[in-house]
């Protein structure tokens, strides 16, 4: 089993990375492999609604040039996900949102019904608004949201400060153990024939009346 942890921060080894590392290390203790993927340094453009991903089923129109399609392939093979962001103006950071718009539009099937969590790092405020924003991607896509003993955030302006946020790091560890438990339950369930349900999609009613 493998979990992908996406770091939306431009700081490769900053605060968000510190929190993700705590999750990754705890997953390893639970026998689950994981990989931290540095998203925040890649100049991902936003979705331009060209619809090419839906027409071709081959990923995003810009996916070859910025590496998006390679990441989409990785998602198909992964069992769980963590999306991590620094808080920017009480929201997730823009690069991560550009990536997630494209990932969920072009690759919803690669993610659906796989457990996932969102975490954030802030100096001071905007954390719950950021988590609300990020978790909406999961909850429109049939993904079990992995939670912890508090809303999953750390506080700090530097990795050293995050290391002092002992409760924040403990929350990340608890989140990882919950993720590991859920992944093992899903795997055991599959082994005895308990498969994810087939979603019904008979209706698409836009708000036109
Ligand atoms: C453009 C920008 C906007 C920010 N906005 C906020 C904010 O609204 N609230 C907050 O507490 N910290 C804010 N910060 C601070 C970062 O969220 C904080 O330092 C975070 O832990 C950095 O994580 P990183 O090292 O992974 O990038 C902002 C930082 C930047 C660069």
What report would you give on this structure?
The structure is a single chain. This protein is an alpha/beta fold and 209 residues long. It has a single domain (2-191), classed as Rossmann fold. It is 44% helix and 16% strand. Bound molecules: flavin mononucleotide. Flavin mononucleotide binds at residues 9, 11, 14-16, 86-90, 121-126, 156-157.
Features:
about 210 residues, alpha/beta, Rossmann fold, six-stranded mixed β-sheet, 8 helices, 6 strands, binds flavin mononucleotide
Can you tell me the CATH superfamily? Flavodoxin domain
- The level-1 CATH class: Alpha Beta
User: What CATH architecture would you give?
Assistant: 3-Layer(aba) Sandwich
Bound molecules: flavin mononucleotide
Q: Decide which structural class fits the backbone.
A: alpha/beta
Describe the biggest sheet?
A: 6 strands, mixed
Strand content: 15-25%
Q: Tally of extended strands?
A: 6
Question: Which fold does the CATH topology refer to?
Answer: Rossmann fold
How are the secondary structure elements laid out?
Elements lengths: L1 E6 L7 H15 L3 E6 L13 H5 L11 H10 L2 E9 L2 E2 L1 H13 L1 H4 L4 E7 L4 H13 L13 E3 L3 H6 L1 H26 L18
Parallel strand pairs: 1-2, 1-3, 3-5, 5-6
Antiparallel strand pairs: 3-4
The chain binds flavin mononucleotide.
The site of flavin mononucleotide has 18 residues, from helix 1, strand 3 and strand 5.
Briefly, what is this?
The protein is α/β, with parallel strands linked by helices and 209 residues long.
């Amino acid at each position: 089993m493998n979990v992908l942890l996406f770091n939306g921060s431009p700081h490769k080894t900053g605060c968000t990375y510190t929190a993700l590392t705590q999750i990754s290390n705890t997953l390893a203790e639970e026998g689950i492999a994981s990989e931290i993927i540095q998203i925040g340094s890649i100049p991902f453009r936003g979705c331009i609604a060209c619809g090419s991903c839906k027409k071709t089923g081959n990923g995003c129109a810009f996916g070859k040039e910025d590496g998006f399609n390679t990441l989409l392939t990785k998602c198909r093979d992964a069992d769980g996900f963590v999306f991590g962001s620094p808080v920017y103006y009480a929201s997730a950071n823009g690069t991560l949102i550009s990536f997630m718009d494209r990932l969920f539009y072009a690759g919803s099937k690669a993610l659906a019904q796989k457990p996932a969590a969102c975490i954030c790092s802030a100096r001071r405020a905007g954390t719950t608004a950021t988590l609300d924003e990020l978790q909406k991607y999961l909850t429109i896509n049939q993904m079990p949201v992995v939670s912890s003993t508090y809303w999953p955030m750390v506080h700090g302006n530097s990795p050293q400060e995050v290391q002092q946020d002992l409760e924040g790091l403990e929350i990340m560890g608890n989140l990882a153990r919950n993720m590991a438990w859920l992944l093992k339950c899903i795997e055991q369930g599959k082994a005895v024939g308990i498969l994810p349900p087939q979603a019904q999609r008979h209706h698409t009613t836009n708000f036109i009346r």
